[in-house]
Amino acid sequence: MSESIFVKDLNVWFDKNHALKDVNITIPKNEITAIIGPSGCGKSTFIRCINRMNDLVTKCKVTGEVKVDGQDIYDKDVDVVEVRKNIGMVFQKPNPFPKSIFENIAYAPRIHGKDEDKSLRGTKVSKYSKKELSDLVERSLRRAALWGEVKDRMEKSAYELSGGQQQRLCIARALAVDPQVILFDEPCSALDPIATAKIEDLLVDLKKDYTVVIVTHNMQQAARVADKTAFFYLGELIEFSETKKIFESPGEKLTEQYITGRMG
Amino acid sequence: MRRRTKERLFFLLFRGCALVVALALLIIVGNIVLLGIGTISWEFLTQFPKRNFTDGGIFPAIVGTLYLMTLVMLIAVPIGVFTAVYISEYQGKSRFANWLRVAVNNLAGVPSIVYGLLGLGMLVLFFGWGFSLIASAVTLAFLVLPLVITASREAIQAVPSSLREASLALGTTKWQTIRHHVLPYSLPGILTGVILSLSRAAGETAPILLTGVVLTKSILPQDIWDTFMAMPFQLYALATQTVFEKTQDFQYGTALVLLVMVVLMNLVAIIIRNKYREKYKW
């Protein structure tokens, strides 16, 4: 097992509210790591530290270290745009752009251009040809298990899709940028059970190529898909280990209380 | 029973008030249309006025108003929209932005004659631009800026933040997010606001009265430093400085053309809004 995300002494404040306290965690590559915990425990805050989405919040202060593939993403020399290119994110509510299905996927690759050489990320880029772009769109949609459902209506608005399809479109959109890590912030909370099952299958499939971190308030979901599970409570990481262990023989009293439903 | 009587009474009161408004509008518009329609002809729209506004047409006033509106739009729209972007996207919570918001809201309440005096004192005299189309356009641009900024800000803030996050999470820069998402999605709202502001500016008299408009001029304005004729001022001058019976037709005709122009602008605004409301739904 090699590490993908390494977090050391992470603290987050929103103005005077100390939202995350001394979080230390190492998230493995090509596995699914679930983040669980009651509302307001800092799950979303944590995941939003990994692609620096918290930068958008005013009066948010982050200290500590977050390393993705060995690089501290909070380093002063780091370009936040590059960080987010490397770390995709799928949100709670499906949020496709009010554009066509094709445009939703093609937008980011068109902006970023084609990397000629991975080691020169961002330094040597050229534009995608029309063919390459439509291939990339197809590949991304196939990878998100959506191609068959939309291939005949690529020019239709993304808002004509169902909620579950929209969410898979958002996943395909993130995949098109070719990230190494994908963050899911409660991706199924707005979906019905069938759509949820499809997303979960997809998650398990995606971990072959990506590191997946998923925030969920659905414990069964964590138990079903995650290899490792982290339990957060009041801004602290209480326990982090194999999912099986968390659910069958938790090491902490708080964890046990939460997963048995006596708290939260 | 008493409760129901009371209910009825209030219902009648509200309906009465609404009726007064509708009636006032009907009387004004009806009056102008009935008395002005007879004057409208091809000659009236395409000729210069003759014999002290008793013959000929209002062509130079129409052209003057159109020139003026174009200039106002060119000045006010970029400044207004970019200011709105700055306030809502870049500096939402800063002290400067707060101060700017208060300033904009207060500017919207300043009487138009004050803008006129500002234009006269600063642009015409101090800057030495003289009585000119550009001085009037800049003055009117000042006047509509708060409206453009407020409308643009509302349109921009109506774009859900989830779409901004979606874009930023893909590794786009802030400016790319604004240019490719925020501005296009808020464009219908911005356009509507712009057109409504312009239709307001089209009817203003006081600001141009002090900065560049003239009652008669034998040629169209040659450049932006030239004086110009305009419909609202022509109306004002004819109504206050001529014998009513002699210029009556001209006054009603001018009022009708101005009214139609403003209504048309508002109509375009509504059409744009409805068309794009369908296109960008989230």
CA-to-CA gap between the ends of chain A? 32 Å
CATH level-four homologous superfamily name of chain A: P-loop containing nucleotide triphosphate hydrolases
Q: Residue share in helices of chain B?
A: over 70%
Contiguous uncertain segments of 5+ residues of chain B: none
CATH class of chain A: Alpha Beta
Radius of gyration of chain A: 19 Å
- Using the alpha-carbon principal axes, give the shape of chain B: globular
Low-confidence stretches of chain A: none
Tell me about the largest β-sheet of chain A: 6 strands, mixed
* Helix count, DSSP H or I runs of 4 or more residues of chain B: 11
> Per CATH, which architecture of chain A?
3-Layer(aba) Sandwich
Write the element-wise H/E pattern of chain B from the N-terminal end onward: HHEEHHHHHHHHH
Cross-sheet strand order for the largest sheet of chain B: 1-2
Rg of chain B, rounded, reads 23 Å
Structural class of chain B: mainly alpha
Please write the CATH class name of chain B.
Answer: Mainly Alpha
SS summary, helix count of chain A: 10
Keyword list:
heterodimer; A: 264 residues; alpha/beta; 6-stranded mixed β-sheet; 4-stranded antiparallel β-sheet; 35% helix; globular; B: 282 residues; mainly alpha; MetI-like fold; two-stranded antiparallel ribbon; 1% strand
Mind sketching the topology for me?
The complex is a heterodimer of chains A (264) and B (282).
Chain A: E1 3-14, E2 17-28, E3 32-36, H1 43-50, E4 60-68, E5 71-72, H2 80-86, E6 87-90, H3 101-112, E7 114-115, E8 125-126, H4 130-143, H5 147-150, H6 163-175, E9 181-185, H7 193-206, E10 211-215, H8 219-225, E11 228-233, E12 236-242, H9 243-248, H10 253-259
Parallel strand pairs in A: 3-10, 3-11, 6-9, 9-10
Antiparallel strand pairs in A: 1-2, 1-4, 4-5, 7-8, 11-12
Helix pairs in contact in A: 3-4, 3-6, 4-6, 6-7
Chain B: H1 2-36, H2 42-46, E1 49-50, E2 55-56, H3 59-90, H4 95-107, H5 112-126, H6 133-157, H7 161-169, H8 174-202, H9 206-209, H10 231-241, H11 244-279
Antiparallel strand pairs in B: 1-2
Helix pairs in contact in B: 1-11, 3-6, 3-8, 5-6, 6-8, 7-8, 8-11, 10-11
